[in-house]
Design a protein that fits this description.
43% of the residues lie in helices and 22% in strands. The chain is an alpha/beta fold. Strands 3-2-1-4-5 form a five-stranded mixed β-sheet. The chain has a five-stranded mixed β-sheet with strand order 8-7-6-9-10, sandwiched between helices.
Amino acid sequence: MVACGIDCGSEAVKIVLLKDGGFSWTSLQYGERTTKETAEKGFQYLLEREKIVCSDVRYIISTGVGRKSVEFSKESVSEILCLAKGANFICPNLKCAVDVGARNINVVKCSGGKVLKFLTNSRCASGTGMFLKMASGILGLKMEELDQLSLQSRDSCELQSTCAVFAESEIISLIHEGKKIEDIVKGIMLAIANRIYGFLFEIGAEEPVFLSGGLGRIKSVKILLEGKLGKKVIVPENPLIVNALGAALIAKERSQ
């Protein structure tokens, strides 16, 4: 039996096929394509790669901000439910998971893959991938370069605001003041970690804390967040696909 989960985020579609106890996945940036076109292209690519046909897939669930655009899915499910399910599959007995994507921060307190409580950032992009992308554009550096610079810093330039608009002005001012680039970057990463920490503190995070989404790939954010929490933060091998995996697991349950 094959089940499928499709996570339509703000910048990319992630697709997971679950079969025989294992899973395969792919991720596609939108580019010039619509969400619908990208999901269809990624789904067909994965079917061909795994040498199966559409009729082999018993159930498809879509999630993410663009989930309603996936017309070939059986149903759509909130990313909160998918986050809890996917994170618990990777890290059994998990108590708290946070997913930081391009525009959203979702935090869930969970037990056995079931949501007990959740928080979200309510459309404010501070502390998200867009916040880091803004900083990347100002400094003329790639995301990976920002991460490496932050790890090299021995100090940090604290940003007074996590609002992307005000933080942009602060970053430009720090550059004009002649502050070291690595210290500015560490300040940016610290602002992101502080934003995530605020959600985790509010929800009453328990160890271990699970971090997924695009910012899960930024090592310096993980390190700074662990310092703030005084708790271990677990980042999966591929933090991008956790919600899609959760959707596939729910699809498997619904098909039985």
